[in-house]
Amino acid sequence: MQLFTLPDIVKNSAKLYPNREAFKNSTNTVTFFQLDTKTSQLAKYLIDSGVKKGDRVGIYLNRCLETVIAIYGILKAGAVYVPLDFTAPHTRTKLVLENCEITFLISSPTLKSKVTKLLGHNLSLKCIIGLTHDVPVKTISWEDIFKIDLTEYQPIKILENDLAYIMFTSGSTGEPKGIMHTHKSGLSYAKLSSDLYGLNHEDRVGNHAPINFDISTFGYFSAPLVGASTVLVSDAHTKLPSSLAQLIGNENITIWYSVPLALIQLLNSGMLDKLNMASLRWVLFGGEVFGLKYLKELMKKWPNAKFSNVYGPAEVNQCTYYNFQSLPPNIKSLPLGKVWRNTDFKILNTDDEEAKLGKKGELVIRSGTMMSGYWKNKELTEKSLYRETLDTSIEYVYYRTGDIVYQDENGVLFFVGRDDRQVKIRGYRIDLDEIESVLINHPDVNEAAVMVLNVGNEKEIYAAILLFEDRVITPKELKLFCKKHLAIYAIPDDFEILKDLPRTSSGKIDKKRIIAIKKN
Amino acid sequence: MEQVILKYINEQLLFDNEMEEDLDSDTDLLGSGILDSLGMVQLIAFVEKEFMVKVPPEDMVIENFMNVDSVCAYLLSK
């Protein structure tokens, strides 16, 4: 059958491979047939409870089997799934819930104490699915969802251009921004990626990323598209690399995809020599730059695997690839590679004119995988786009990645840096301006300058603080304050309270000088 | 031993606890987001120093670090 929407993935594979294992987590599995049934049961419950097409439904789950049931159940109901970071501070989760007017939340008993605390924040939640606990809203357990009779189930009409999911990432104003993807952009990604890596129904995909991270769409969309099995790595495994190494071996993972950090931790565990991982045929990594030193070591441990450097902001999911099994001897940095199919790009200079071959400029991307915009933020959406009009009636719309690149004579792209204050640390996209705006909101803080320092091989977030006169506050108190308002990964590693901040001639805080002073 | 480890986690790794209940020796440390991977590294470093043991990489597995009870059982087996 021809596929147009994300739920078509499940319906199709349930027909072709009903009894194959679709998803696995620790000891629990679902086949494609079971997945189709369970997601329809959740969809029926949502529809019967009044969830309308286009409504946003939150997913507040750790890494578990219920994540995939939640995603496709919500989509089948015609609703939009909003993956929430369960490790985020409640104030931040509350912002997203309110911004999306979420009244239905999907969770599990594992997170019951977090959910209970979250409910203390005066939310307009009406129903929590997945846990029955003494909370002041309606709840229903997963067991009861899976008892729902489907004889009267009427599937909802969904079109490819309907909104499917909103992923939130940090924004410079301190308010998280929601990247909107349609069924079409999600399915385009699944088709392109499964095609590029020759994914098939015999593959076993290792999914390391949580669902609020765009990398997860490979395991959740691309693998089921071709009938492959996805092994959902548990939270416990992500924290103990030795266990993770055992999992990859025991589960006969054939395709792995994660941030480089997870691979570096595997390497450092020393377990790669002791275990058989011969089944691995592809190792995909993305989200940040993979240092060549570690990468080369890893390639020695897995000589039969092919590697792929995946690049693309969450706004376009993926747009380039650099596939390799060996590296040129004199390589200095890993290329971003070439854009994949159904995708076009330009490199623009500061005047929005196309840069000459080999010259640096901002990468702009046009692709079938592109987002439909930022949730409830037309202004920001427009700012992120580059429009090219031809013959007055034809318009090409590109997404401005904010990444500075150049292109060599073979059309291979190379990453130079970012043109703004967004950085990637430990695989997470962090907006330094967002951290500053949080710090400045503290009543004792007069000014704050946040920057990234290179400490050994690691990148650290460093915050230099100027207090109002006569105020006293410790770095620990500031850290606590940040923890209430920022995602864990965005909390500065180092706070320093300074008597004065160096300035440029125009009176701006001179961050370059602060970094230079800090280095000495 | 149990109390020493619980105290360390409570005071050093959970300085802003967003959980409803208090940490117990059987609370799952890994699954529900109590410790991140950095917290895990800190915890291992702490038990190594405090109880004068060496935790080799092959012992850094879920069975030994799932909760405080399993950490204690592991340490006693050393």
TrEMBL record, chain A:
PROSITE patterns: AMP_BINDING
Record-annotated AMP-binding enzyme C-terminal domain positions: 434-508
Superkingdom assignment: Bacteria
Domain AMP-dependent synthetase/ligase stretches: 12-375
GO cellular component: cytoplasm
Pfam families assigned to the protein according to its UniProt record, in alphabetical order: AMP-binding, AMP-binding_C
GO process annotations (BP): amino acid activation for nonribosomal peptide biosynthetic process; secondary metabolite biosynthetic process
CDD domains per record: A_NRPS (cd05930)
GO MF term list: phosphopantetheine binding
NCBIfam families assigned: AA-adenyl-dom
UniProt cross-references to PANTHER family, sorted A to Z: FATTY ACID SYNTHASE (PTHR45527:SF1), NONRIBOSOMAL PEPTIDE SYNTHETASE (PTHR45527)
Protein name per Swiss-Prot or TrEMBL: Amino acid adenylation domain-containing protein
Automatic annotation (TrEMBL), chain B:
UniProt superkingdom: Bacteria
Domain annotation Carrier: ranges: 1-78
Membrane-traversing stretches: none
Family annotation (InterPro entries): ACP-like_sf (IPR036736), PP-bd_ACP (IPR009081)
Protein's recorded name: Acyl carrier protein
Organism, as annotated: Hyunsoonleella flava
